[in-house]
Amino acid sequence: MATIDGRPAQYGISLKQLRELMEHRGREGVAKLSEVGGVAKLCDKLYTSTNDGLRGTRTDIEHRRETFGSNVIPPKPPKTFLTLVWEALQDVTLIILEVAALVSLGLSFYNPADEDAPVLQEEEDHHGWIEGLAILISVIVVVFVTAFNDYSKERQFRGLQNRIEGEHKFSVIRGAEVCQISVGDIVVGDIAQIKYGDLLPADGILIQSNDLKVDESSLTGESDHVKKGVDVDPMVLSGTHVMEGSGKMVVTAVGVNSQAGIIFTLLGAAVDEQEAELKKRKKGSDDGRAPEQNMNMSPPPTDGIKSESDGNHVQPASSPAEAGHKKEKSVLQAKLTKLAIQIGYAGSTIAVLTVIILVIQFCIKTFVIEEKHWKNTYANNLVKHLIIGVTVLVVAVPEGLPLAVTLSLAYSVKKMMKDNNLVRHLDACETMGNATAICSDKTGTLTTNRMTVVQSYICEKLCKVLPTLNDIPQHVGNLITMGISVNSAYTSNIMPGQNPGDLPIQVGNKTECALLGFVQGLGVKYQSIRDEITEDKFTRVFTFNSVRKSMGTVIPRKNGGYRLFSKGASEIMLKKCSFIYGHDGVLEKFTRDMQERLIREVIEPMACDGLRTISVAYRDFVPGKAAVNEVHIDGEPNWDDEENIMTNLTCLCVVGIEDPVRPEVPDAIRKCQRAGITVRMVTGDNINTARSIASKCGILRPNDDFLILEGKEFNRRIRDSNGDIQQHLLDKVWPRLRVLARSSPTDKYTLVKGIIDSKVSENREVVAVTGDGTNDGPALKKADVGFAMGIAGTDVAKEASDIILTDDNFSSIVKAVMWGRNVYDSIAKFLQFQLTVNVVAVIVAFIGACAVQDSPLKAVQMLWVNLIMDTLASLALATELPTPDLLLRKPYGRTKPLISRTMMKNILGQALYQLFIIFGLLFVGDWILDIESGRGQDLGAGPTQHFTIIFNTFVMMTLFNEINARKIHGQRNVVEGLFTNPIFYTIWIFTMISQVVIIQYGKMAFSTKALSLDQWLWCIFFGIGTLVWGQLITSVPTRKLPKILSWGRGHPEEYTDAMHLGEERFDSIDSDKKPRAGQILWIRGLTRLQTQKLINNYMAVLITWSVSTHRILNCYCSSFRLF
């Protein structure tokens, strides 16, 4: 018989049998499990031990993977490069350009024999096809560069996702030792420890559980928490969240064989079908919402999941829609949406007007004034006018904005990882820059989360140094050490440091680790007590939660009966105590007066020193004669009657646990306050402890008139007589509130929602929240930015968060603020630069069309300008590093205009200068520079130096204005920090060299004629003039300008329903919402922004037709890789 690692290779149960077993729930599941012989027999069949787990040898693990599968659900294969190319070709404006270019190309070869058209010169005839081909090749390169960017971006984000998943560890028992392994390494037969806050990585059957409740809504749609137990419902499923309690399970299904895996597999097939179906359907079909529901991680129960409606599973009338939990658009996205729609309308209108004016003028001149008849060759003129109009639209609509946003965010996200910020949602990065309020936890975020007992009160003796076991009466000492050792999660341990002399490593709950350290300090080994009283001997466990604020464990007594150990927050525990050990361990009645004296003389002074106070108590249930502090029982008590069980306790001790403030936190909070961000502490701790820590951190300062409230008082102030929360009452509380103590997760959610919804402050509040517990999930989701703790945080909190603090440190939040503001400023810089170019290019094209029946800037030239201001400028301006100066200004808030008066002053001022120069050159430039005029040229005429100088001057002014655009707050020194950004100056120099090549060697392809050195110097002189002019603009006082000059003002919520950014899992091409014509480009661009699809549809357009096409493209790609 074949053996593996000393045991039979054939398992006692097959993969199919395990899958069938896991399909059952509740009592039916218990019955099916008993048919197998129970959980112990199942473990035997899987060759695993309920106490020692698997041996953990490589051979055994590999064999289990081969037999039962690995714990990995294969991701949907990424889109191929050709698929991305095809998607890029779907862009509406690109299609118009493709058609126009093909028509232009075809007409250039069309010479009808029967017409008396004037014969063009041979040179002109030879080059007639160049413009059409130039645009066509431009489109091809745009498509390939867009596809390349999409491809590289997708790989980058898959890598980020893999990193997030790779950091997900889970506790299993292997070789009789508890170890943390990656969830991908879990195999069938592993014994896994599950606890409050875990996201279960595999299916399993409970071996033992304590007060276990699981949220199965992600699989079954049931909103109520499901009670789990060996005798109630032993099946626990992957993808579900442990909301209360703890336990131990044997893993029975992993990966695609788990219930979540089965649904994912079905889901993948369903999504493919939906995508295919959507492409066939007409836009606006009501069924188009189906894939969005399917992509939701909360599918309805499938046929493979059998569920019975017993007391354990309460099926709600209707499960809450996941969409209800989705956040609104980020602040910047909402403002950009509004701005983009306005620009889109303006650009579309001017483009249409340009084409109409050009066509009307051509028709009047040709058919009315010159009285000519229609000839087929005139179609060339009409196509040329159409191309000019489409090009005006290309330049007018800043479609490079989504690229600038995504580049800036992606660059920042990569850099933020080094600052201990793991960004899960890109938009959280820029939202953090607008934050006006931070609601922070205390433990672990503001403090070190390395807890130690520094004071104790035992037998009416207060010790400010650790006592020894000899200082405590023996029977009290034994009860204290046993009570702490047993009544703590067995996953909490103190491990020796890695090197001799290192501090011990605290694993698990840090408060429990402090108590276990106290036991060790008394000279007792807590592990020996745990070895004697193993978890399977527990009668009942009352796990800690935010309502109880205590934990209890019931164990059998040696002489019969039961002993309950309990620990928790002192003031809550003492109310449940009726007895206490006095001097020399004598039992005394614990009267109300004694309780108040103990709180006043012991607990409050400890709390005022910033200590967390914990009380340990016990109660005996005996079958025989009961002592005064015991209770007589005839049978097993009703453990579900918690109120009567947890009463008349005997207090053993009160300890004060120190959790020092992180040394860097006071400085970080000062930076926040200087930056206009209000920091509030929301904690479950005693109000005196919270006040002490808040003062040490700098949240509270002497003589400040701020509120410090407990949860109960907070609720009393914000609720009306019917108990309903009223916003106007909340608005009286939150502006002055700095510390909320003894708060529940509901209080935290209420506070966050109240601040976000409040309209008290002019610019509306943007709120960031930190959280680590499972119950913090709602507040983390509601907040504009949710920070989860990477070390202490539960899986549920991390799932609900936007950013994970990998070091659990508040100072990392300040770095996130700095990066966020930098992103916001980078987008503003890009906007300031691009809108200047937009205004100038559109006005020049429009007035040129009206005045000289032609645009001074040709189609291909405008595409090159579009490349400068879209791709290259966005890459250059989006990669500026943040500076500490960013923290010296106030946050923008939710409703402040995106384009400030200072920015608008710069945009209009530079546009006036550039328009003056360009129109001066257009109308008198030929006379001043003594060159042939380019005005009134025929269709077939070649390029002139006149119009080449106009094009070159415009590009020079644009390039030098890019340096001006680096500053948006009215700073005079625009070159400060220029050489700290190699991407910026590399792109700038590259653009300048490309422009020289285009002017000197572009010829017909770019409608340029080589310039002399004198003419080049004039162009550069006008370009440098923008820097000088910029200094004059800066001198104009901004405050005297009318507020109407700021743009993007108002409440962005007005546009929330206009475009559902990121709420579709598919691009808007496939969505069922048909946008209005004026919004089509922007709905595509901005919808893709949320799903991080780089959409720069005109990227590298002119790259195509320079002499060194491939060299330019390679240089751009290498620049893109720099970040």
Task: Report what the structure shows.
- Belongs to the cation transport ATPase (P-type) (TC 3.A.3) family. Type IIB subfamily.
- Catalyzes the hydrolysis of ATP coupled with the transport of calcium.
- One of its GO terms (molecular function) is ATP hydrolysis activity.
- Its EC number is 7.2.2.10.
- About 45% of the residues lie in helices and about 15% in strands.
- Strands 12, 13, 16, 17, 18, 19, 20, 21, 22 and 23 form a ten-stranded mixed sheet that branches. An eight-stranded mixed sheet has the order 10-29-28-27-11-24-26-25, sandwiched between helices.
- It has 37 helices and 29 strands.
- The chain is of the alpha/beta class.
- It folds into five domains: about 5-75 and about 185-255, Calcium-transporting ATPase, cytoplasmic transduction domain A, CATH 2.70.150; about 85-110 and about 130-165; about 420-445 and about 660-810, 3-Layer(aba) Sandwich (Rossmann fold); about 450-495 and about 505-660, Calcium-transporting ATPase, cytoplasmic domain N, CATH 3.40.1110.10; about 835-1040, Calcium-transporting ATPase, transmembrane domain.
